[in-house]
């Protein structure tokens, strides 16, 4: 039981010491989301499956957020004429990739892990988007 208390204490201290990093990340995410209007995204896409999925994943990787918000944004993007593959890639990357939060992730989990996790999530978001649109086309 003593080791569990010690582990919880160390984890609590690590979280407490990293509060400034977390706050900085939250503020940076809000700033980036406020600077880029939602209507600008429709001009970026060309209705090419591969390029739209890469661009969608790239934007979602930088503008991270929670799943509920991504569904709202995805619906708005579709209404503005953005392709389904771009919206799907955006939503998957929005939730799984975190370029903006990478400094904190590197600090807490290690640089190599953070880079590998983000790179893998980015590639998989492109693949998932393409497969999803392909399957939707079959239905």
How is the secondary structure organized here?
Elements: H1 2-17, H2 19-35, H3 49-62, H4 67-79, H5 84-96, H6 102-109, H7 111-138
Helix pairs in contact: 3-5, 3-7, 4-5, 5-7, 6-7
Question: Key features?
Answer:
single chain; 139 residues; mainly alpha; elongated
Describe this structure in words.
The protein is mostly helical. About 80% of the residues lie in helices and about 0% in strands. The mean pLDDT is about 85.
Summarize this, please?
The protein has helices at residues 2-17, 19-35, 49-62, 67-79, 84-96, 102-109, 111-138. It is mainly α and 139 residues long.
Strand portion: under 5%
Q: How can the largest sheet be summarized?
A: none
Number of folding domains?
1
- State the helix count: 7
Helix content: over 70%
Using DSSP, what is the number of strands?
A: 0
Low-confidence stretches: none
> Based on the structure, what is the oligomeric state of the protein chains?
single chain
- Structural class call reads mainly alpha
Report Rg.
Answer: 18 Å
Shape: elongated
Mean pLDDT: 85
Straight-line N-to-C gap: 55 Å
- The helix-strand sequence is HHHHHHH
